[in-house]
């Protein structure tokens, strides 16, 4: 495989700017270069709207939303420096990964105006304003509040639909992340009410000419398949939706991990692997 094909448009979380990641951002960039990447999107998490939406690891360190805003500012400043430093070797796209909770729309739009990212990754990590992907305990709490797993899935895909319409992110992050702690997700995703919302969201993604993140982080955690799952992957292919690999790396050892495999699989399925450069979508 031609190494110029290697790409990740959802990756590069570093220990400098993300508490649940490791290593220095520049070391991660150097790892992409070592692996033969010529383009990479770095997509750090946005700072929270307020202290209510701090992650547990941030609360444990007694950080505030104001602290994380300043850290995010430092992230963009360093990215600008790294883009210039390595411009002869790799094209770095300065991105950010969104959150979706009460008040997110104005918050994200203000961050876009302030920091002028090359593009954004639109993600949903919260249902009922509770983060569901940090721990199974919180995930189960949301299931209890909503009344069933099916209800959680339906609410998740409704939130995602609203986010896509509102932000028009070039990359839709880990489309089916809501399955993270559900051992029966393959059956759940095919339930008529859930399937209807999935297809609705995919139609919107197609109409806006956006890109699905073929997110490889589950493989780094020993899971059997990436986000998105096989049934949704086949639907996306039938609809002509673009997919681009995202390692969702959280350290040097994860940078570029499984991207070769992902590209091979996408090619085998007939997806277009002439990767687009990410942009802000108006």
Automatic annotation (TrEMBL):
List the molecular function annotations (GO) for this entry.
histidinol-phosphatase activity
Q: Which UniProt keywords apply?
A: Amino-acid biosynthesis, Histidine biosynthesis, Hydrolase
Q: Which residues cross the membrane?
A: none
Reaction(s) catalysed (UniProt annotation): L-histidinol phosphate + H2O = L-histidinol + phosphate
Major enzyme class: hydrolase
Which Pfam families does the protein's record reference?
Answer: PHP
Q: Which residues form the PHP domain?
A: 13-215
Under the cellular component aspect of Gene Ontology, which terms does the record hold? cytoplasm
What Enzyme Commission number(s) apply to this enzyme?
Answer: 3.1.3.15
> Mind listing the GO biological process terms from this record?
L-histidine biosynthetic process
Please name the pathway: Amino-acid biosynthesis; L-histidine biosynthesis; L-histidine from 5-phospho-alpha-D-ribose 1-diphosphate: step 8/9
Extract the PANTHER family matched here. HISTIDINOL PHOSPHATASE-RELATED (PTHR21039), HISTIDINOL-PHOSPHATASE (PTHR21039:SF0)
* Family to which the UniProt record says this protein belongs: Belongs to the PHP hydrolase family. HisK subfamily.
- Under which name does UniProt file this protein? Histidinol-phosphatase
Which organism's genome codes for this protein?
Desulfobacula toluolica (strain DSM 7467 / Tol2)
